[in-house]
What does this fold into?
Amino acid sequence: MTARAALVTGASSGIGLAFARELAATGWTVTAVARGEDRLRALVGELGPGHRYLAADLSTPGGQELVAAELVRHPVELLVNNAGAAHHGPFTGTGPQEALAAMHLGGDAVVVLAHAFLSGARRGDALINVSSTLAHAPAPGLAVYSAGKAFVTALSEALWYEQRPLGVHVMALCPGPTSTESLSQPEADAAAGSPRHQDAPAAMVQSARAVVRTALRALDRRTGPTVVPGRANSFFVLAARLLPRRTLLAMLSR
Ligand SMILES: NC(=O)c1ccc[n+]([C@@H]2O[C@H](COP(=O)([O-])OP(=O)(O)OC[C@H]3O[C@@H](n4cnc5c(N)ncnc54)[C@H](OP(=O)(O)O)[C@@H]3O)[C@@H](O)[C@H]2O)c1
It folds into this structure.
């Protein structure tokens, strides 16, 4: 039987790296995408023969087109849109370009790659868009990030319904605080893909591997459209739906 192929963006670190490793360990061939070529080369060396990498900056139209063309040239059965970046602090604390760059990566790239993938997808194929629990609960200090994740979740849920009759599965994966490499380097927050979690209750914090295993189990069972790994995080999302918005925002601003 030929191995199934997956393309994972942001595969050189954190949740994307855990996806690449888990998929390779379960017989998938992986195309790993990120900007930094050294880490990608090391990853593909670790994963072994058959795996590939593509260096691209997904916050730029050129990088998005490069990866979209790759999806057309080498179709895959699974696309994981994972690369993302969070910028902490007040909305007006930085210029708009920084916020727009995060949106190009977390929004435009997701749309461009999802479109390229779904245009050629066949029955049984799947798309995972990595969103966040903050899609359901906008966090002051992470306004653009939260809004971007709300976009990713809404897009994924609508696509889940559209693609269902075609046998193509779409998932919005909404992790809570996840202990990724960037989290152990708080000074790297401005450039990192992750919100800060020093203040998150320990019960909510999961490893990247646990997040990915939950996602891949849900993928096998075709659960969806939204998957929230971890009981505490599922409870948080439920509470976010029920609490008055003012109360929720005040809680998240702490
Ligand atoms: N960690 C959390 O607590 C958490 C919680 C909920 C959701 N998420 C979401 O999960 C996803 C992964 O987060 P993470 O914590 O695993 O991030 P991470 O450890 O910081 O890794 C980010 C990955 O994305 C790549 N990347 C960053 N900017 C890129 C760009 N412009 N073009 C292409 N690749 C780029 C990075 O490699 P290069 O720097 O080499 O490009 C790296 O491989 C994100 O969408 C994030 O929003 C994370």
